Amino acid sequence: MKSSLVLLVALVPTLAACHGDPKVVVRASMEEGATAGIEDLPVRLLPYDRDAILDSLRAKSRVPEPQVPADLVQQMQSLPGLEQQARARGDTAVTRFQAFRRVVLARADSMRAARKAWADKTYARFDEKAVAALANSGEPEQADTTDASGTATFRAKEGRRWVYARYTLPYSELYWNVPVEVTGDSTVVRLTRANAKEKPAL
Q1: Where are the domains of the chain?
Q2: How far is CA 37 from each of CA 33, 67, 184, 186, rounded to the nearest angstrom?
Q3: Residues 4, 125: contact at Cβ < 8 Å?
Q4: What b-and-e string marks burial along 84-116, b requiring 16 or more CB atoms within 10 Å of the CB?
Q5: Confidence of residue 102 (pLDDT cuts 50, 70, 90)
Q6: Are 150 and 35 in contact (CB under 8 A)?
Q7: CA-CA distance, 87 to 49, in Å (whole number)?
Q8: Is the pLDDT of residue 16 over 70?
Q9: Strand pairing report for 23-28 and 186-191
Q10: Read out DSSP for 106-119?
Q11: Please, what is the angle between helix 91-122 and helix 70-89, to 10°?
């Protein structure tokens, strides 16, 4: 699924928002209370629920989404631990692990291609729907990137917004589409592994 149309038509810098509007401070880290934040994470503040659009398009699809086999998910999830164990045991174990990883990643590539083909067709009208939702909201879509502390700051009028971001790990992806009610002078939104949807990198 592509979002280039939404970006070209509607995306505006955070500075375009009125300086008198409340702040929305997004703080991204792997764990709650971690001293190190996730740096250089692209974050968007949306005036619409992108998941609701995706769900509506998915519901209209006549072809079911290709499901990732449970054993492939387990194998993908096991790779970080197996790699660590292999490195601790030495060269022979590392060689065996690398052979196993190649098999797993080949299966993952095949599944990824099937899911991408399905998503490209199913979500083909996402940009159109998102632009319409943006127009109906009467509010801008904003984008920023987290700084060295893992912080991104926006200004927005009071009301419902969604904080959207994705973070790729070696074998999985963290996905956030966090609803937030903007009120008062400042609203803090925390993005951590705990409140993300974590999916295998497929």
Answers
A1: 4-62+127-200, 70-121
A2: 9, 33, 25, 20
A3: no
A4: eebeeeeeeeeeebeebbeebbebbeebbeeee
A5: very high
A6: no
A7: 43
A8: no
A9: parallel
A10: HHHHHHHHHHHHHH
A11: 150
- Rg from Cα positions in the chain: 20
d(Cα 112, Cα 106) in Å, to the nearest integer?
A: 10
**Superfamily of 4-62+127-200 according to CATH:** Carboxypeptidase-like, regulatory domain (2.60.40.1120)
Using CA atoms, how far apart are residues 105 and 196, in angstroms rounded to an integer?
Answer: 23
Q: Cα 112 vs. chain centroid, distance in angstroms?
A: 16
pLDDT tens digits along 36-86: 999 999 999 999 999 999 999 999 999 999 999 999 999 999 999 999 999
Q: Kindly state the percentage of the chain with pLDDT values over 90.
A: 82
Burial of 13 (0-12, 13-18, 19+ CB in 10 A): exposed
